Amino acid sequence: MDLFELLEIAQKEEKTQKPIRLKCCTAAGCLSSNGQELKLALEKAITDAGVNDKVEVIGVGCMGLCSEGPLVMVEPEGVLYGKVKPEEAPAIIGSLNGGKNKVKKIDLNHPFFKRQMPIVLENSGKIDPERIESYIAADGYLSLYRVLHEMKPMDVVNEITKSGLRGRGGAGYPTGLKWSLVAKATSDKKYVVCNADEGDPGAFMDRSILESDPHRILEGMAIAAYAVGAQQGFIYVRGEYPLAINRLNTAIRQARKLGLMGTQIFESSFDFRIDIRIGAGAFVCGEETALMASIEGRRGMPRPRPPFPAESGLWGHPTLINNVETYSNITPIIRNGANWFAKIGTEKSKGTKVFALAGNISNTGLIEVPMGTTIDEIVNDIGGGVPDGGKVKAVQTGGPSGGCIPANVFDTKIDYDSLMAVGSIMGSGGMIVMDDTANMVKIAKFFIEFCMDESCGKCIPCRAGTVQIKKILDKILEGNGTQKDMKNLSDLCDVVRSTSLCGLGQSAPNPVLSTLRHFNEEYQVLLKDGKVEKVEKTEKIGKPEKVKESKK
After folding, report:
1. How far apart are the C-alpha atoms of 459 and 457, rounded to whole Å?
2. Maximum C-alpha span of the chain
3. What is the distance between the alpha carbons of residues 178 and 22, in angstroms, rounded to a whole number?
4. pLDDT tens digit sequence for 376-390
5. Which of 79, 324, 444, 527 could cross-link to 206 by cystine, CB 3.0-4.6 Å?
6. DSSP letters along 486-536, please?
7. pLDDT for 279-314, tens place per residue?
8. Helix and strand totals (H; E) in the chain
9. What is the pTM of this model?
């Protein structure tokens, strides 16, 4: 494969497109609502109408607005239909010649679409994730060609460093710095790993990206491997994502067939292959040392650091680990330049962030916004607020490792430092909205119970501490708690956070601490000796500290 052949594939793909294209969402969310049956019904309606020469149906990935699925986009007209039923397919085909139909149309001028900035999601809902030709027609693999023929490995590292990209899996470690550490390490073998073990309740960002644009991950990993000197990559994905796994396997086979994976890629001296490792669903395997143990065939349990993976990772060799969204940013940074990316976002948080917007929100779905967008803009403008005029009480970001943010601080900007200041973290991008009927003490209990169940048990603070935190919360919810229990709860959270071995234990108390800080009155009214008014020193309780490492 050379550049001419790549461009030839792109041109052929564009020429074979039919004048009218119906893009039908075939991501997991829409498939669960009869999306596949809808696609087949559209194909049949086209045949019945005798317009096969003019109209085609293309299965695409997530279009974002999951609450309105299954979705169908008509191009080039730019009409989006929502909650489409298979029996409505003939009406849509009939309307292509000017006829009217009663199928629900989605307003593309709604803030849900207008306030977003797709970079990671630029291909989602637009290309066929099961055809490499569709990806190549969207400038796929051109960035890989460029780095192999126009850039030295350290040039690539410097470009990513200059962009200001930070890891999108949790704590936001500078991506370029991590790459430089692996690149400078001396070893006969190096590895590149994609952490796709997305285990946060309510999170579906990585799953949607893998289902919608799998070649984007492969290309980003290949560029990273060239930059750090690796020849082998692994994608660690949880077994609960069968569609994502199937599409990744298909993408890898297609890339190998065209010579875009394997030996002498683009007629260069660069060799690289990617294999998939399927996780059994252990939340702790999102922690990088536990993830590596699982890839090696051992029980997924974390180990103390140092040594860090950049020095001693898989089988003792230097290993680069980034998550799905981080790798998805690499191709556009190489294509458009580091300066372009660095101009987006805030001073310390560059680029965009993908969020899975879920919970008591009108517009459930997948969104991508520039760093610096406020929580209020996401929840009330893009998300449309609580359905039926309800009132938003809080949002929970960062999954079980994050915190609950009250509505009175929704002017908080979405960036790493601002979220930390209000007692939460960015995490991998889950955002769960809660209305004013939510009991925040029960919410805290839910998350600590999740972390308790998912603890690997290796270290005592996490293994025993989460159990004791849960017991205190049970006591409070039963109406038997006291002010002494409140102090014990706060102190125990601090101990677990400060002394646990890995990111799971260190961040497990965050939801409890954030509710103690922002919703202390809800605890007080449940106590035997409680007070309705907010107690003193609330700000001290659960005051956030810097997260020591990324959970994912």
Report:
1. 6
2. 77
3. 42
4. 999 999 999 999 888
5. 324
6. HHHHHHHHHHHHHH-SSHHHHHTTHHHHHHHHH-HHHHHTTSTT--SSPPT
7. 998 999 999 999 999 999 999 999 999 999 999 999
8. 24, 14
9. 0.93
